Structures are given as C-alpha cells and as structure tokens.
Amino acid sequence: MALLVVIYLAFISLGLPDGVLGSIWPVMQQSLDLPFWSAGLIGATSSIGTVVSALMSYRMTSRFGTGKVTLASVTMTAVALLGFSFASSLPMLMLWAVPLGLGAGSVDSALNNYVALHYEARHMNWLHSFWGLGASAGPAVMGFALSLQLGYRSGYQILSLMQTVLVFALIASLSLWVDPKGKREGVHLEDHQKGSLRHKALPFALLSFFFYCALEISTGLWAVSYLVQVKQLLPSDAAFYGSLFFLGITVGRMASGFISYRLGNIEMIFLGLFLCLISIIALFFASLIFAGLSLLLLGLGCAPIFPSLIHQTPRSFGPGVSQRIIGLQMASAYIGSTLTPPLFGLVGSFVGLQWMPLLQGSILVLLVSSITILVLLTRDKEYPI
Which of 12, 21, 55, 252 is deepest in the core (most CB within 10 A)? Predict the structure, then answer.
C-alpha cells in the first residue's frame, strides 16, 4: 500500500508541469519580450525529449529498476522547473525544456509498465486520474502565485519545491519497489521468453496510442475555440465547458477503476469508444449548452481507453516484452499529441473550425479500426501475469 501511494504521487508529479507553460505564457511572453509563437518551440523541444526518453525507457529500467528511474526522472523535472524560474531568454527556456521532456518519458513508461504487471486494472485507471489531478494542480499553483503578486518565477519555484519533496519520498521508498507477491522487481529471466516484439499486432497497438492522443490533445486545445466561433458561446462560458472535458477524463478514470471490477480491459475500451462517438455527434449537431456538455461526455468516453490499453499490453504481448512495447506506445502517443494540434489549426485556418467534429470523427474511426484489429490479432492468446 505504501508503494501505491508513492506511485500515485509520482503520477501527480508527472502531470504537474503539463499545463503550466500554456497557462502562464501570456505573462512570460510579455515579461521576457518573446514572440508569441516561441512557446511552440519550447513545447516541441520538451516533446522531443519525451519521445527520446520513452524509447530509452526499456534499457534504463532493465539496468536500474523502476524505482531508480522514477527517482532520476522526478529529479530532472524538479531541476528543470527551477531552471525555468531563472531563465531570461528563449535559448535558456529551450535548454531547460530538454530535462523536462527527458524526465517525463521514462517515468511515464516505467510506471505504466510496473502497474500493468503488478496491479489490477482499477489501479491503472486510478493512476491516470491522479495524472489529471496533477495537470489541474500545476496551473492552479501558478495562478495562486500570481494572485499573491509573487510572479511566475516564484510559481515555478513552488512547483520545483513540490517535486523536490517527492524526490525525498522516492529515496525513502527505494526498498519498496518489489513485486507485491514477494518477487524482486523487474522481469525474470524466464519471462523474456513470454512475448515477442515481432507480433503482427504491434503496429496497430502503436497506431491506437497515436490516434487516441491525437483525439484527446486536439480536443483539449481547440474545443473552446470551436464553441466560441461555431456555437457562439461567450468565451467565459466556453472556457468553463472546455474544462469539463478534462474533468470528465479525471472523474471518468476514477469511476473506471470501480467499473473494472465488472468489466475487463477490452469491454472498458469499447464502452469508452461508444461514448466518444455519441459525444462527437452531439458536439456537431447540438447548440449552446448541449454542445458544451458533450465535451463532458467526450471526456468520460476518453477516460478508460488509454489506461485500459496500457494495462492490456503485457497480457496481449507478454510480460517479457511489455516494457519495450509500452516505451514504444508512449513514444507513439507523444508523437500523436505533438503533430495533430497544428494539423487541426491549419485545417481550421483554411476551412473553418465548423468541421472540427468531422476531423474528430475521422480520427475516432481510425482509432476504432486500429483497436479492433489489435483485439482480433491478440484474442487467441492472453499471457498470464
């Protein structure tokens, strides 16, 4: 139980920096006299670091173990946030974005694999709901610092201090990183024979994560603009409904942990996909408040998909290769979340945001197709964990 608490705290830590740059950028941009578009360079630098570290997660975890990888990753994040508080130019911000990204990818892959191997599906869903708490808390901490006239630099320092507290908690918990059944942490030698990286379903597993993150991130970035421009909602009302999307994901994942007592991973995934379909149709045809509320339903639909796919990975491909595959899945997810928002923005600039639900629907069709093929190709054999 003590280790689970540490893992949940680590996922709050993982989410803390994710929404901070966007929430504070208008203030930082003015303070540092930077062009508005330079936030994209900082975000892209961090994303590249995240992809690289996700791809390296298997080697790092195999050599050092999940506990030490998590400790190193959170330490890098704490240092990076402190660096952001002192940076005074775009090159310095991009420099500190490197350890911020490197710290995110490895810990994401390592923790997801550890929980997928050693805990039930409910813990995977609850784990990702704690990420949502962290992603919500980061901007809130920054807003609190600004409300006290402390400035954004102090906000980054507070976040760095929060991460540092977790670093000490991780140091104290290193001896806890063992299999709950009493085995030493990691994959045993005989487990290396349980699974294959040459499985024909692997490309569809990677595509599933790419399309899922494409749907989630593009919705989070452009849904508010869609409600204002197309549905004619007031910006303040649209911002409220936009927050319901993330609330739906967080609450939905908490609820999914309890629903998983009754439903398996595959049933949870297709239930989520069905809710996504209904919500996208409602977003396109409904008006005013009903269009806004459809974002809450979309968040609830998205909630179980990502954690259930992760939890199913060692069962579909084998525990011996799950860390490698989850690292590839995380990299694919980050690539999807990096490439799709600019694509939505480009299409919106030329044809208007009124077609956004059709783009979402297209991505959803691709997501359903890739997951369906993945399930069909892996249904004959499920590895025991």
Answer: 252
Token representation of residue 247: 């609330």
Q: Is 140 found in the same domain as 8?
A: yes
Nearest partner of 327 among 128, 106, 159, judged by Cα: 106
* Counted domains in the chain: 2
Three-class SS string for the chain? CHHHHHHHHHHHHHHCCCCHHHHHHHHHHHHHCCCCCHHHHHHHHHHHHHHHHHHHHHHHHHHHCHHHHHHHHHHHHHHHHHHHHHCCCHHHHHHHHHHHHHHHHHHHHHHHHHHHHHCCHHHHHHHHHHHHHHHHHHHHHHHHHHHCCCCHHHHHHHHHHHHHHHHHHHHHCHHHCECCCCCECCCCHHHHHCCCCCCCCHHHHHHHHHHHHHHHHHHHHHHHHHHHHCCCCCHHHHHHHHHHHHHHHHHHHHHHHHHCCCCCHHHHHHHHHHHHHHHHHHHHHCCHHHHHHHHHHHHHHHCCHHHHHHHHHHHHHCCCCHHHHHHHHHHHHHHHHHHHHHHHHHHHHHHCHHHHHHHHHHHHHHHHHHHHHHHHHHCCCCCCC
Does 144 share its domain with 12? yes
pTM: 0.80
For helices 90-118 and 38-64, angle between their N-to-C axes, nearest 10 degrees: 40
Q: 219 and 295 in contact (C-beta within 8 Å)?
A: yes
List the structure tokens of 373: 């093929």
The reply to whether 10 and 157 lie within a common domain is: yes
Asked whether residue 197 is assigned to any structural domain, the reply reads: no
CB of 61 closer than 8 Å to CB of 136 = no
pLDDT at 374 over 90: yes
Same domain assignment for residues 159 and 285 = no
Report pLDDT digits (tens) over 250-286. 899 999 989 988 899 999 999 999 999 999 999 888 8
CA 44 to chain centre: 16
| 64 and 165 together in one domain | yes
How far apart CA 264 and CA 298 sit, in angstroms, is: 21
Taking only the tens place, the pLDDT of each residue in 117-153 is: 888 888 888 888 888 788 778 878 888 888 888 888 9
Residue 112, domain CATH: 1.20.1250.20
